[in-house]
Amino acid sequence: MAEEIKKEPPSTFKVTIDNITIDVAPGTTVLNAARIIGGDVTPPAMCYYSKLKGSGGKCRTCLVEVAAGSTADPRPMPKLVASCRTTVMDGMIVKNITSDKVKDARAGVVEFLLLNHPLDCPICDQAGECHLQDLGYEHGKEGTRYEFKRRTFEKEDIGPYIQLHMTRCILCYRCTYVADQITNKRVHGILDRGEHSEISTYISKAIDNDFSGNMIDVCPVGALTDKTFRFKNRVWFTKPVDAHRNCENPDCCGKTTLWLRGDEVFRVTARKDEWGEVQSFDGKPGWICNTCRFGKKKTADWEVEGLTKISRHSVISQGKYDGLVMPKETVTEVMGGRGPKLLMHIHDESGVNNPAIDLSKINGPAHSDTFDKV
Amino acid sequence: MARKLLLDKVNVPGIRSYEVYRREGGYRSVEKALKMVPADIVEEVKKSGLRGRGGAGFPTGMKWSFLAKPEGVARYLVCNADESEPGTFKDRYLMEFIPHLLIEGMIASSFALGSNTSYIYIRGEYAWITDILENAIAEAKQNGFLGKNILGSGFDCELYVQRGAGAYICGEETALLESLEGKRGNPRIKPPFPAIKGLWDCPTVVNNVETIAAVVPILNEGGEEYAKIGVGKSTGTKLISACGNINKPGIYEIDMTISVEEFIFSDEYCGGIPNGKRLKACIPGGSSVPILPANLLLTTAKGEKRLMNYESLSDGGFATGSMMGSGGFIVLDEDQCVVRNTMTFARFYHHESCGQCSPCREGTGWMERVLKKIENGKGEMKDIDLLWDIQRKIEGNTICPLGDAAAWPVAAAIRHFRDEFEWHVLNPEKCLTENFGLRHYADPIHVPA
Predict the structure, then answer these.
(1) Domain stops at, among B282, B310, B333
(2) Do B197 and B284 have their domain in common?
(3) Could you tell me if B150 and B278 lie in one domain?
(4) Which residue of A has its CA nearest to B189?
């Protein structure tokens, strides 16, 4: 009996991610534990969406190395694991940005994701808030090694509000989970296999239900875009403000972000958190209905609460000086106490800043000889 | 002549019918099993040392003992007959010519695992075998070996045959379960493993056809007797489907003590290479396993004779060894082009990738295109390194083993036959009409003293 009590798992698990140790509840995934720490330690996630059951594991961008499985069994895991679908164990040691294996694999995954992506960001409405853009910027290479024809699809009409651009899709499956879990009828899914798989409705039906617009919010790329906002404006020229209204639909939370230019409402989206997911209110994900999203395009329809907080890193923050959120810096902790190192201590190495030399007294332009004399 | 356990009765006329099969001693194992305690049967299989015949070679008894047994939850046994690996056709032969052996094994295994509803998930293209199996199931049912209260033991078991729709990926056990549930055949993310949460979220065991058939001789003769056949951890007999440039392609039941050399060249088995050609390379376990040049195939890097068993074939790891795999033994003679062979495999995996996770979805197609480029005399030296880099980024980073299976053949071909790839790049005209040939691949390997 006494032994059994000893074996009872502790109420919190200690997990170390990139040299930062935290306590989390059992059952937490490695990704969510990393999100609690925040900053660079958090692996990027393209397909995982905490509000959608069953999502994750597909894009492989969140792969991490498990250097020690747990205190009880400290063996490392043989392969990199998808952090979004791996639950933490007590004493687990995870390496993300401190592992070369992970960085290499992630660069590979980014390359794979961009292989058939059209990179039409200049004409894509998602540009500026696209997760693939961020991912490519942070982990990708400047060029591609792919020299064959890229895969393209015909545009498909799936109703009056949403445009489907299959060519841009990275097959994260999030939108099919939305259809399954928050709308009452699923009419779309994945057709075909392998490279040719595509999101589609069977057969070319319109998606018609009150919550279909949330598919746009969960899409990490520009595959699903808002037809009422298409080509109207770039997101970084608009000003996001938090607003709410009393929605008649009981399942709609009514709390939204309005994207304004002057007094004009260009588009309405659900409120997103720092991971690009919809925020939860009272423990429920804040999905919004199509009436709020597409039907209420006047400021008079809304009670504006104030500016939406925007990450300083986001391009949307350009030209906005209020409500910026500074990103968390974890470098010092990850590197075990030492701060970021400059590649070259330019001021120590060069005599350019030597106060003994008065540049105004030199005849002609100064060059290295001038400083070497001292 | 080696002892046969699975195919010894296959040539008896009319063995497909219940009467003849029963007369030849069939269904004895079921009668014996029903008098045993299920846990003892699992113990017996453990003692036999039987390893999964589907490719991974995981000990079957251990797999069975992992099966969760929560109260009031159904358990399932699923037979994986979705044999689609290029080069592998052993299960087809077994099911087509001696179907009752599989049915018998299924009933005995179902009893051991406590499964009252068991499934045979068969490859869609094996349509005619579905009829043969269903016929056999009907006969077994008429004679009281299936249905309610089998042989008065109180054990109920129903057996169903489900045809797939022609996807290789549905041979991956979790994709198979998804498909069996009527969904899109995408592999599930593991854990949880099927032994905990499988078919309809119930504990499930998925076994290969040959594995389940092997339970019959294990029960008839006892696990310890079975373990005496073979060598080391490779116990019992194994079906090998031999094909390619050999005089006698076909199914051979071997005990795992014979050498690869004997298997290829003796008249009892493959009967040597036709037309007086010489052996260049061999893929010893179906398209997914690494290809080996003749010298490394016949002798291990340590200079020992390579045997046809799990340990010996994988001796030296992937650097100088390969894998037993599913037993699809593909032999290439000196006239075969390794680049072309690799391209054919890459095309297969490109076509069969389910498209769920990005490295496999995008990488398999990319590898195929680069290989096609090299094969068609348009390749550059950097393409070979590129191929190596792509396979490295697919391997181990995917949800299911299909990514690994696509990466390994490419990796092994470049590892062992890099000069043939380079020859293709350097001779863009010649490679369209001629072959690289044998060169040094059949030379004895240098063994450091």
Answers:
(1) B333
(2) no
(3) no
(4) A57
Backbone angles phi, psi at B374, to 5 degrees: -65, -45
**Does residue A2 surpass a pLDDT of 70?**
no
> Does residue A21 contact residue A13 with C-beta atoms inside 8 Å?
no
What is the tally of structural domains in chain B? 3
Out of B362, B365, B396, name the one closest to residue A80 (CB): B396
Task: At B401, list the tokens.
Answer: 């083993």
For residue range B187-231, list pLDDT tens digits in order: 999 888 999 999 999 999 999 999 999 999 999 998 898 998 888
Mean residue pLDDT of chain B comes to 91
The number of beta carbons lying within 10 Å of the beta carbon of residue B70 is: 10
Q: Which 46-105 residues of chain A touch chain B by CB within 8 A? A: 56-60, 63, 79-80, 82, 85, 104-105
Angle, vertex CA A156, rays to CA A154 and CA A162, nearest 5: 140
Total Cβ atoms within 10 A of residue B116: 15
- Alpha carbon distance, N-terminus to C-terminus of chain A: 81
Q: Which letter does DSSP use for residue B444 in this model? A: P
Indicate if B212 and B109 belong to the same structural domain: yes
Higher pLDDT, A312 or B168: B168
pLDDT tens, residue by residue, A339-358: 766 655 555 555 666 677 77
Point out the residue among A113, A146, A171 whose CB comes nearest to the CB of B355. Answer: A171
Question: Are B255 and B209 within one domain?
Answer: no
A252, A254, A253, A259: which is closest to A310 by C-alpha?
A: A259
**Residue from A251, A250, A245, A239 nearest A214 by CA:** A251
The CATH number of A9-109 is 3.10.20.740
Q: At a CB cut-off of 8 Å and minimum separation 6, what does A298 contact?
A: A265
Asked if B121 and B176 count as a contact pair (C-beta separation under 8 A), the reply is yes
pTM recorded for the entire structure: 0.89
Do B264 and B244 have their domain in common? yes
Res A1 pLDDT > 70: no
**Domain endpoint, select from B333, B359, B376:** B333
C-alpha to C-alpha distance for A94 and A87, rounded to whole angstroms: 11
A202 touches chain B (CB under 8 A): no
Residue B207: give its domain's CATH number.
3.40.50.11540
Is residue A192 within 8 angstroms of chain B, CB to CB?
A: yes
Query: Does residue B222 sit within a domain?
Result: yes
CATH code for the structural domain at A151-231: 3.30.70.20
- CB < 8 Å to B364, chain A: 194-195
Structural domain boundaries of chain A? Answer: 9-109, 151-231, 232-338, 342-374
In a domain, B69, yes or no: yes
Please tell me whether residues B402 and B298 are part of one structural domain.
no
Asked whether residue B368 is domain-assigned, the answer is yes
B357–A60: do the CB atoms touch at under 8 Å? yes
- CATH number for the domain that contains residue B286: 3.10.20.600
Q: Does this chain's domain A9-109 share its CATH topology with A151-231?
A: no
- Partner residue facing A146 (CB), from B353, B355, B366: B366
Q: What does B131-155 look like in DSSP terms, one character per residue? A: HHHHHHHHHHHHTTSSBSSGGGSS-
Residues in chain A with CB shorter than 8 Å from the CB of B384 are none
Residue B2, pLDDT score: 65
Across the interface, do B189 and A56 touch by the CB < 8 Å criterion?
A: yes
Selecting from B167, B358, B396 the residue whose C-beta is nearest the C-beta of A113 gives: B358
Chain B residues whose C-beta sits inside 8 Å of any chain A C-beta: 167, 169, 184, 189, 350-359, 361-366, 369, 386, 392-394, 396-399
pLDDT tens by residue, A248-294: 888 888 899 999 988 899 999 999 988 889 998 888 889 999 899 99
Question: Is the ipTM above a cut-off of 0.95?
Answer: no
Domain of B62 in residue numbering reads as: 18-228
Look at B358 and A196 and tell me if their CB atoms are within 8 Å: no
Q: Is residue B13 part of a domain?
A: no
